[in-house]
Amino acid sequence: MVAVAMGYFAIGNNGYFGDEGFHAERIRNFLAGNFDLATPSAAPGFHLTVWAFAAPFHQDSLQFFRGVSLIFGLLSVVVFHAARKTITATAAPARTIQYVFNPIVYPFLFFAYTDGFSLFLVLLAALLLLRRRYVLMMLAGIAAIIVRQNNILWFAFFFLLFFWQEIPAFLRFVPRWIRKKIPMVSDVRVSRKIPWGVIAANIVFLIACALFVAFLKWNGGIALGDKEAHPFPSFHTGNIFFCLFLAFFFFLPLHIANIRPVMHRIATSRFLLPLLTLTFLIYVLSFFNTHFYNQGLDSVYLRNRILVYFTMTEWHRMIFFIPVGLTILSLTVTKLSRPEFYLFYPMTVVFLCLSWLIEQRYYMIPLSLFLLFREERSQTTENASALYELIFAMALFIPIVLLWFFL
């Protein structure tokens, strides 16, 4: 937490980083009584929250806006640590350090962006789910949607986990003769008590889904502004493969620890290499850098430099797939803490493929949930990962402070 606060003070009174100007403008409009939502494209939850903090003190400085982000960034560290300890206490400290210093998470814990606040709310929903506080979990999920609309998918994901955890309560409403015909649930003991908490959570979920559908119909899409950059619905693989590319470098100690299990899996599995080959074919046919915000080899955005460089020629594209393929191999032998957590993978694919713009900020939630759900490894691997993440984060953050580039 001290490191997060130090990052906030390190950027000092520097001007806007990335899209901070758009978010600051909306907040200042709110402070002036203008609640127009035309720009930026995100929902106004973050801006309304900052406005609620700033209005009583008549503050409209970027430094103050970042300070509000810092508060929720620090709270997200507490929430992540608590959620991880709920799953397993033994690896919580090292895993929390890995969360804080994930290179694409760390700076957005205090920049005036929606993403840090969004991540806090999603992690809060995860914590409440793990502690079976379902109505509060649903409310946290709704708040996350009001901050970033695409969090509706994580809202649905948490509902699926909620359903998994409370199958006996749900089965209470299924006739016995039907339950006996379903092998997976025929032996499950059905709760005799009326599950009022489960019923209330379902009602909140259904109301939230109905309101979101009404919003899509009223708004004509998911983005409030800049709709050309965020068409809906649309399906693209760019973010999936770029996320896998970055995950290779972000989780390198884990991948090194997985070398022997991967070699064994390759030797014993008939399906792994064909699956990797199929993924490569999908990559070749679908991975292109076409979004107008992802262009420029000399762009201030580091992601654009990487994307333009690795899509210049077919040889560059082939090289780009090497870390992608290695990440996939490593993930096949990386266990998650509970069986239901494996729903995280298909949900991440859906979440990422709905965005045309390739943007690493979109990976903050998936990578953080991966750290939360991943089964603990040896203490050496966990500690090495924590130290590696710290060094990697600083190697990216210092050039950002020096204005060499932005993520």
Q: Can you describe what's shown?
A:
Helix 5 packs parallel to helix 20 (379-401) and helix 6 runs antiparallel to helix 7. The chain is globular. The chain has one domain (2-172, 194-401). It has helices at 2-11, 20-31, 45-54, 62-87, 92-100, 114-130, 134-147, 152-165, 167-171, 176-179, 196-219, 238-250, 252-257, 259-268, 272-286, 302-309, 314-331, 344-353, 364-373, 379-401. The model has no long low-confidence stretch (mean pLDDT 89). The protein is 63% helix and 0% strand. The chain is an all-alpha fold and 407 residues long.
Notable characteristics:
single chain, about 400 residues, mainly alpha, globular
How much is the average pLDDT? 89
The secondary-structure class comes to: mainly alpha
Terminal Cα separation, in Å?
A: 22 Å
Strand content range: under 5%
Indicate the low-confidence ranges by residue numbers: none
Number of beta-strand segments:
0
Largest β-sheet summary: none
Q: In sequence order, what are the helices and strands, one letter per element?
A: HHHHHHHHHHHHHHHHHHHH
Q: In DSSP terms, counting alpha (H) and pi (I) runs of 4 or more, how many helices? A: 20
Shape: globular
Can I get a quick summary?
The protein has 407 residues and is mainly alpha-helical.
